[in-house]
Specification:
about 375 residues; mainly beta; 27-stranded parallel sheet; three-stranded parallel sheet; 32 strands; about 15% helix
């Protein structure tokens, strides 16, 4: 009888201990969950600069290439592949290219790929397929990174994704006609957008293009000889654009419908529009903020350097030199804009009307030289 009573008391004590500890365990679990939610929210608010993104995206499988190798290896550092083919252009991988020329003949999705060359002047990836230009596609929310490579004959198609290029040359590309509605234009077989880069919104993502120490040369399209971007953000640092042309507007760059263009320490030379406006830049309902921007020897029917319609422009240390418009705006043609020129120079620009500027300006002029 006594043993039964002792067992009962023991079981009762165990139950009391469990009841006392359980709330503490539950409270600890709830506290940990709240901490995780807070950390996730904090991460969503963190601003990541270009260098952080470039380094953090170098992940996944890694392959090495050396076109001068006599043996086609296994892609390891000590035994590299000697050529690139479709199967070796792996999604979410890093490709290291030694100096040399590599041919590629197909269109390809490049989501999550990091393409890193040894030397931009000596590491060349050339399109050799049946079309005028090969297309490298970036899907919404995905990233493609290129560094120290010359791309010849490739168009980067960015649908709500991100394209980073550093120490890169993109040249000799011709825009491919498109049949999508993404550009808010009525497309036909003759319409093509962005010879080197075409960027546009997806249903839920806006494109981001970042070019640092890059050169875009000898690219062409119906609209936007080098770049055509609808919405999103375009960042250009220490880069050069020359000999790009469009049959219609935007010899070098077209920015439409909410596109934000940010430029510093860059040169645009001999970019031109054959039949329309904006020899170097054409903006519609967008914005351009630039410092140390130099535009020379460009031409168009209107606005040989810049044509801006219903857009915001803020230029500091801007130089427009020896640009020619057939009709109006030897340097800048603007309508319905907010325009600011600070410490800028307009030299030897020519047009039938408005050798330097023409249009309607709601602007601020500080320390300008019209020569």
């Amino acid at each position: 009888m006594l043993n039964i009573k002792h067992k009962f008391i023991f079981l009762l004590l165990v139950m009391l201990i469990v009841l006392a500890v359980a709330p503490q365990i539950s409270a600890h679990e709830n506290s940990t969950h709240e901490d995780l939610i807070l950390q996730t929210d904090d991460l969503n608010n963190v601003s990541i600069d270009d260098s952080d993104v470039l380094s953090s995206d170098l992940k996944g499988a890694t392959y090495y290439f050396n076109s001068s190798s006599d043996v086609d290896g296994d892609g390891s550092k000590d035994n590299p592949y000697n050529h690139i083919d479709y199967s070796r252009f792996q999604v979410s991988s890093t490709l290291y290219l030694a100096d040399g020329e590599y041919n590629f003949s197909q269109n390809k999705y490049v989501n999550g790929i990091n393409l890193i060359g040894q030397n931009v002047d000596k590491t060349i990836l050339r399109y050799t397929g049946p079309d005028k230009t090969g297309i490298l596609f970036i899907d919404p929310g995905k990233t493609f990174i290129v560094e120290n490579v010359t791309l010849i004959g490739f168009n980067i198609d960015v649908e709500g994704g991100t394209f980073y290029a550093k120490n890169t040359v993109i040249r000799d590309a011709t825009a491919i006609p498109t049949y999508t509605e993404a550009t808010d234009l009525v497309n036909s077989a003759s319409n093509s957008f962005g010879g080197a880069i075409k960027a546009y919104k997806s249903e839920s993502n806006s494109p981001l293009i970042s070019l640092e120490n890059c050169t875009l040369v000898n690219n062409t399209g119906e609209y936007g000889g080098a770049i055509h971007s609808t919405g999103g953000r375009l960042i250009i640092k220490r880069s050069n654009f020359f000999n790009n042309y469009a049959y219609n507007y935007g010899g070098a760059i077209v920015a439409l419908y909410g596109c934000s263009v940010e430029i510093e320490n860059s040169n645009f030379t001999n970019d031109y529009s054959i039949n329309d406006a904006g020899g170097a830049f054409y903006l519609l309902k967008s914005q351009l903020k630039a410092s140390n921007l130099y535009v020379s020897n460009s031409s168009a029917t209107f606005g040989a350097a810049i044509t801006a319609l219903d857009s915001n422009i803020a230029l500091t240390h801007f130089t427009a030199e020896n640009n020619t418009a057939k009709y109006e705006g030897g340097a800048v043609y603007a309508l319905y804009n907010s325009v600011s020129f600070i410490d800028s120079v307009f030299r030897d620009n020519h047009a039938r009307n408005g050798g330097a500027r023409c249009g309607s300006f709601d602007d601020e002029l500080n320390r300008q030289d019209f020569l």
